[in-house]
Amino acid sequence: MQIGQKKTTGQKMKKERNRGRETDRKPNISQIQKTGEHCIYAKRCGGCDYQGILYSQQLSKKQSYMRKLMEPFGKINPIIGMDDPYHYRHKVQAAFSCNKRGHIVAGVYEKHSHDIVDVEQCQIEDAQADAIIREIKNMMRSFRIRAYDEDTGYGLLRHVLVRKGYHSGQIMVVLVLVSPILPSKNNFVKALRKKFPEISTVVINVNDRKTSMVLGERNITVYGKGFIEDELCGCTFRISPTSFYQVNPQQTEKLYRKAISCAKLTGKETVIDAYCGTGTIGLIASSRAKHVIGVELNRDAIKDAISNAKRNHIHNVTFYNEDAGKFMVEMAEKGEHADVVIMDPPRTGSDEAFLSSVVRLAPDKVVYVSCGPETLARDLKYLIKHGYRMKECTPFDLFPFTKHVETVVLLSQLRQKPDDYIDVDIDVAELEGTSAETKATYEKIKKYVAEHNDGMKVSNLYIAQVKRKCGIELAENFNLPKSEDARQPRCPKEKEEAIVEALKAFQMI
């Protein structure tokens, strides 16, 4: 009996030692790539949807999902993935607290809770940023810095935010404190920079409110300039603690280059960069356009955008701190025109007020940069219904191991606006052998109408009537109803409009 007990105890001790080694060891990336091994924090963290799935399979899943959503609008290009999908996040933040044993923990909130998962290293976060956070956690006891307790409200350090420039290598450390006073702050910064001399600036952010927001409104620079700089697509951008800047700069460069190449700028165009933020896309596009207009509602973002334009010596970009939708309506009322609208809305997508302003301004091209596929599909329905069609759609994987997909979609105006269909005048005699009537079958037209008009059904008779009205000669062998006379029902106006949209989409008129 005693022997059995000793064996059990020994097994437990061995398991505990193994568990400790597994927790502390650095994940073997090549092994994970080959075997799809889970991250050791996966079960509690919940931040990655595709743990244990090979990266090639992740891309296949995302491609299938995007094809299902986007194919009703047109052809989908293959998804653009990463060569190395690990440690891509160049913005890393960790929440700090104490566990029940009084030990400091730093990491992410467990899914659906406010318990913190003590993450030593993450396979999608920048490894150096993780190391800086670990060092800060180790330094706290010697500097007598207490971690913040959400329940009691006691403690000083709430979060640490680390941002790293991909090209510049500059590092910013933001200490989110309840109070603006950090004990021995100069010695703390000196000790931290001794271990990580690459740190360019250290900022105290004051957040004394009971809120789930990470950052407060007040920033105090304790070392360096209070910001870092990085290069993106040949332009230099200033990144402050609150600046929006994509967390995956490698893929962001590919995403933005694609968005700008879709517009096929020649240097003669007026471009509107809606939801422009700190001006990244507009400033990058400026070298190929005549004039870029950036519009953004966030005042601080516009200040950064103006600063970024000066830093890059760009003079053909004008920024406005206004609502982009209202701005474009005013442009249309003044008779002004934009050749291209580039829109990069939040994950919730755009709204009908903004989309209607795009339609009213009527640019030749719309480049939609999306971070939410479902809302993209919703917004495309509106734009297609109001005179645009999708020319190109390219998904990008900016967030490996998660379900998120970014997308660049190019839309162009149809040759005629939907309201102009009544007066179409086509000389059928001039049509070539591959004339309009051969471009799409009646079944294809029915399918298009149903997909773009909430399941609307149209008959062969209605399609034939609209074709004739548009000057399209019907094939002699088309199987029309036998009773082709004046007593036949006439195509209702709403169905006529839907059929005209389909004919335009198939370039039949």
Polypeptide structure, described:
The longest helix has 23 residues, at 2-24. The protein has 15 helices and 16 strands. The protein folds into 3 domains: 90-232, OB fold (Dihydrolipoamide Acetyltransferase, E2P); 248-413, Rossmann fold (3-Layer(aba) Sandwich); 442-506, no CATH class. The chain is elongated. A 7-stranded mixed sheet has the order 3-2-1-4-5-6-7, with helices on one face. The protein has a 7-stranded mixed sheet with strand order 12-11-10-13-14-16-15, sandwiched between helices. The protein has helices at 2-24, 29-35, 42-45, 55-70, 127-142, 185-195, 249-263, 280-285, 299-311, 324-333, 352-361, 373-385, 442-452, 460-469, 493-505, and strands at residues 91-98, 104-109, 116-118, 157-164, 171-177, 199-206, 218-223, 228-232, 235-239, 270-274, 291-295, 317-320, 340-343, 365-370, 388-396, 406-413. Residues 1-36, 417-437 and 476-487 have low confidence and may be disordered.
